[in-house]
Write a structure and sequence with these properties.
This protein is of the alpha/beta class. It folds into 3 domains: 133 residues, Nucleotidyltransferase, domain 5, CATH 3.30.420.40; 63 residues, Dna Ligase, domain 1; 137 residues, ATPase, nucleotide binding domain (Nucleotidyltransferase, domain 5, 2-Layer Sandwich), CATH 3.30.420.40. The chain is 35% helix and 30% strand. The chain is built from 11 helices and 16 strands. The strands form 4 sheets. The protein has a 6-stranded mixed sheet with strand order 10-6-1-2-3-16. A 5-stranded mixed sheet has the order 13-12-11-14-15, with helices on one face. The protein has a 3-stranded antiparallel sheet with strand order 7-9-8. The protein starts with 10 loop residues before the first strand and ends in a 5-residue tail after the last helix. The mean pLDDT is 92.
Amino acid sequence: MFFGRKNKPLLGLDITTSSVKLIELSGSAGNYKVDSYAAEPTPNNAVSEKAIVDAQAVGEAIRRAVKRSGTSNKECAIAISGDAAVTKLIQMPRSLNDSEMEGQVELQADQYIPFPMEEVSFDFEVQGESAKDPEMLDVLLVATRNENVEQRQAAVEAAGLIARVVDVEAFALENSCQLLTHQMADGGMDHTIAVVDFGASSTTFSILRDLRVIYTRDFAFGGQQLTEEIMRTYGLSLEEAGRAKKEGGLPSNFQPEVLDPFMDEMSLQVSRSLQFFLASGSGREQPESILVCGGCANIPGVADVIASRVGIPAEIGDPLGQMKLSSRAKSLGVVKDSTALLTACGLALRSFD
């Protein structure tokens, strides 16, 4: 189920603690079009720390998104969080045929997966010739507990959809970075770029070299903390605070007393992640630029604040910047939401692998 078993367009379906985002693409590399898009709020407490607690409630949110988007497609690609996946690069003889390879991977998988094999879903993908031995192939093994896949499948099925691909968020994000090359020097080749995807409750910090992720870090921080600070400061409910954050209308002290400290914290989190990256191995170098993505990237001026605090040029990442957009997708806010669509786009791109 991981990576893909694809033969027709797939809906990219990103399920988070705050929202369900759905996108459908057509076309080909360099000439994609957004055919369908919609986002719906995730019901309160239906998703906790990336685990689906109430599949029926999430399924209803997905169903609403599908209806609003206008798509007739019933097949989708979904993702589990990187925290829930075990990944390992192993070597296999290049002389093996497909069935032999599958058998050998299963034998080796038992060594690397810290759970009983009957409780695990796993898959593998051949990466190419091993740099260590030309007679061997590098094979990426990915595994997760069955319950992580089943939770998401149950939500998707409750919405009347079929999950054709179960991916890992980190891989979907890497896949979507091809959509950011228009914002990278030389299309990202021979360059080191940081991509920071600020979600509602968690953030993914990735370093790309030649458009490949060479370092990734997930940490608990996101837009939910700004919402909670608005609640505390102004005595609002969760719903009122969320609406005020998006629509405005807060008192004049909001910027200096709430928003500016939050942007400072965003900058601190980026700086801390950079330090972790630089300390993670020999020969690490500072990235040349930072692309800021996720819902928090829509805060006016945030890229400039991060750039000034961290000392590296930063701009807002726009994965839809080179795409054509259907009029319906535009009317449903896809342009405004674009910077938060990395994972959804990466999943939708599995249609074209």
